[in-house]
UniProtKB/TrEMBL annotation, chain A:
Keyword Glycosyltransferase part of the UniProt annotation: yes
Record gene name: PIGQ
Signal sequence annotation: none
UniProt keyword annotations, A-Z: Glycosyltransferase, Membrane, Transferase, Transmembrane, Transmembrane helix
Taxonomy, superkingdom: Eukaryota
Protein name: Phosphatidylinositol N-acetylglucosaminyltransferase subunit Q isoform X4
GO molecular function: glycosyltransferase activity
Residue ranges of the TM segments: 278-296, 343-361, 373-396, 445-469, 475-499
TrEMBL record, chain B:
Transmembrane segments: 36-56, 62-82
Annotated family: Belongs to the PIGH family.
Organism: Equus przewalskii
Record gene name: PIGH
Domain Phosphatidylinositol N-acetylglucosaminyltransferase subunit H conserved: 89-158
Identification of the protein by name: Phosphatidylinositol N-acetylglucosaminyltransferase subunit H isoform X1
Length: 537, 188
């Protein structure tokens, strides 16, 4: 198999030294993690590697030598480097060399244990693959951490292919912790050798997040314990709670906040992304809610809203009354049954009258109620929208009642019609066998049945029309409520953190890798550049 | 080493196949599709603008004309960025994997990389496409559950759609590398 050497791009300009990394025999690939520079004492290098191996459970070893010829007079360096092969024995031994001012490298891999019948120690074809250590670490393409019951020792080689390479780089964080300004015995070159990458804000946030998370987790657990107490399980309250969408939204938000501030860390990048998305959506929600609050409470808008509410309710009731008068007359040229029409029409008109009186009774308190409800916008825009949806549901409660009456009447009529139609044909519904059976009726049963059937058939258009009109009204209200809920769901579930990452730090969201063949010269080893492949356009 | 040959696609348009042999273990095949023809572009633009002008004479609203220009521009940009593929490349690297790249007319490139461990074989398959029977090159992926099964068939050169003679060239070249790969991976 062709020998693949994964070389970090940051070490391409480093001084000569030893290559340190991991050899994956199944893939025949050598993953170079860092370069150890001169001067060094071999014992100390071996100690450092043993420490790293113990801390990270990755089989780090000296893989070979790296020679960067800056001047012509470094021929002796080449011989010195060859001698190092005897001190640090590794199978196969890599020798990478780069000339000054040349883009092309020379690589040799020698096996010492090849049987003597082949003559000189065997040489393999070597392929160089450059990778960016920082991007590989940050894009988190490595598989999640191994199970804790795996024995300590070499890392599990069950990860196949390129996943093994990413796994190696990710686990060797210990090696990357020392930079060139440290006073250690060994001088290393890797992506953090110019200085360990860290941000003061991130470190401070990490330190502060522990106690804050604990405090908030306690608070949230208190709130959720209070909300699930026995008081709220009593029948009227539990029924109301289940119907109001505000309670639903509050419960959802409470669940999300509990998840965000829970004290256990996220296990894998997907969970971390989910937590971050939730946190950003909560922030956006609260920010929009506070903006809405400041807009509502400025310039006495609540007073204007409250003043406009009662006339609007009156107007809606008037329109409904006009509609009922129209239905009681000859709607769309259809001829209704006068008696039933009058009964239903008057029943609904009385209902509307009751409703209007109720609204007028409530009108002095509306402004104060609206003001207090407007305060709830500081909990988030979604809560304010849910409250709006609930208010619409409460204000159009009479339309809901009309729909229920119309539907019930129509349903009863259809049941009666179907049963009498079966009687008309001489059949019966067998409840035991759940099917239609024939039945012999007496003459008087047949007579009364047919009479009732006729009455119901002639009253059908009236009931059907009332049912149709009120169903359409109810659909209108449901559509408006549905649009508000759609908006609430959008704010709840839009993954803003991921979208932001895609715009600002696209390499964090890499889904795979892509290779590019770099300039090639015949006789030299092939050079490839490995980059993260991004999702989307 | 580079070699360029010209073939034709299933509709008769001209294609150019560029084979690059970087090393005995790495080869690249680049199929370039026919360019966007000026004739079809002019025809579509004229149709849209004539229709818009017809609507304008009916409605006397000049917004229609500006809307037509806007739509034409957006449509062209969208077509170049999302639909029109200029070149399709197949890069096969022994013991690493197979990479397929499509580059669009606007410069966008979309890449798919399949690791060698997942590749079972590369074959030429027949398919019924509209009223024709065509040949296409595809990569067969191994099934992790069943050792002799195939989990997925990934077609290559989907928008270029070259004919059998071009596919045979690419097939022979790739099989040399795959055979070498199988020989070395079978031996411990």
């Amino acid at each position: 198999m062709v020998l693949k050497a994964f070389f970090p791009t940051c070490c391409a300009s480093a001084d000569s030294g030893l290559l340190v990394g991991r050899w994956v025999p199944e893939q025949s690939s050598a993953v170079v993690l860092a370069v150890v520079h001169f001067p060094f004492i071999p014992i100390q290098v071996k100690e450092l590697l043993a420490q790293v191996q113990q801390a990270s459970r990755v089989g780090v070893a000296v893989l070979g030598t790296w020679c960067h010829r800056r001047q012509e007079s470094e021929e002796s360096l080449g011989h010195f480097l060859e001698g190092l092969g005897a001190i640090f024995s590794h199978e196969p031994w890599l020798q990478l060399c780069r000339e000054r001012g040349s883009k092309f490298w020379s690589c040799k891999a020698t096996h010492r244990q090849v049987p003597a019948s082949l003559g000189a120690p065997g040489q393999d074809q070597v392929m160089l693959i450059f990778y960016d250590q920082r991007k590989v670490l940050l894009s988190q393409l490595h598989p999640p951490a191994a199970l804790p019951d795996h024995q300590a020792g070499d890392a599990t080689a069950s990860a196949g292919g390129l996943a093994a390479v990413f796994d190696t780089v990710a686990r060797s964080e210990v090696l990357f912790r020392s930079d060139q300004f440290d006073e250690g015995p060994v001088r290393l070159s890797h992506w953090q050798s110019e200085g360990v990458e860290a941000s003061i804000l991130v470190e401070l946030a990490k330190q502060a997040s522990g106690p804050i998370c604990l405090l908030l987790a306690c608070l949230l657990s208190l709130i959720s314990a209070a909300s699930t107490s026995r008081v709220f399980k009593l029948w009227p309250l539990s029924f109301i709670w289940s119907k109001l969408s505000t309670c639903e939204q509050l419960r959802h938000r409470l669940g999300q906040l509990t998840l965000i501030f829970s004290t256990q860390k996220a296990e894998n990048p997907a969970q971390l992304m989910r937590k971050a998305n939730m946190l950003v959506s909560v922030f956006l929600d609260v920010a929009l809610g506070l903006a809405l609050l400041s807009w509502l409470h400025g310039k006495d808008r609540i007073g204007q809203l409250a003043d406009a509410l009662v006339p609007v309710a009156d107007h809606v009731a008037e329109e409904l009354q006009h509609l009922l008068q129209w239905l009681m007359g000859a709607p769309a040229g259809l001829k209704m049954n006068r008696a039933l029409d009058q009964v239903l029409g008057r029943f609904f008109l009385y209902h509307i009258h009751l409703w209007i009186s109720y609204i007028h009774l409530m009108s002095p308190f509306i402004e104060r109620i609206l003001w207090h409800l407007g305060l709830s916008a500081c909990l988030g825009l979604t809560v304010a929208l849910s409250i709006l949806s609930d208010i619409i549901a409460l204000l159009t409660f009479h339309i809901y009642c009309f729909y229920v009456y119309g539907a019930r009447l129509y349903c009863m009529k259809i049941c009666g019609l179907s049963s009498l139609w079966r009687l008309f044909r001489g059949k019966k519904w067998n409840v035991l066998r759940q099917r239609v059976d024939s039945c012999s009726y007496d003459l008087d049963q047949l007579f009364i049945g047919t009479l009732l059937f006729t009455i119901l058939v002639f009253l059908l258009p009236t009931t059907a029309l009332y049912y149709l009109v009120f169903t359409l009204l109810r659909l209108l209200v449901v559509t408006v409520q549905g649009l508000i809920h759609l908006l609430v769901d959008l704010v709840n579930s839009l993954p803003l953190y991921s979208l932001g990452l895609r715009l600002c730090r696209p390499y964090r969201l890499a889904a795979g890798v892509k290779f590019r063949v770099l300039e090639h010269e015949a006789g030299r080893p092939l050079r490839l550049l490995m980059q993260g492949a991004l999702l989307g356009p | 080493m580079e070699a360029e040959q010209s073939f034709s696609d299933i509709c008769g348009g001209r294609l150019a196949l560029q084979c690059r042999y970087y090393s005995p273990s790495c080869r690249e095949f680049c199929v370039s599709c026919p360019r966007l023809s000026l004739r079809s572009l002019t025809a579509v633009t004229c149709t849209v603008w004539l229709a818009a002008y017809g609507l304008f004479t009916l409605c006397e609203n000049s917004m229609i004309l500006s809307a037509a220009i806007f739509i034409t521009l957006l449509g062209l940009l969208g077509y170049l960025h999302f639909v029109k593929i200029d070149q399709e490349t197949l890069l096969i690297i022994d013991s690493l994997g197979i990479q397929m790249t499509s580059s669009y007319a606007s410069g966008k490139e979309s890449t798919t990389f399949i690791e060698m461990g997942k590749v079972k074989d590369l074959v030429i398959n027949e398919a019924i496409y509209m009223q024709k029977v065509i040949y296409y090159l595809c990569i067969l992926l191994k099934d992790p559950v069943e050792p002799h099964g195939i989990s997925q068939v990934v077609p290559v050169f989907q928008s270029a759609k070259p004919r059998l003679d071009c596919l045979i060239e690419v097939y022979r070249s790739c099989q040399e590398i795959l055979a070498h790969q199988k020989a070395t991976s079978a031996s411990p």
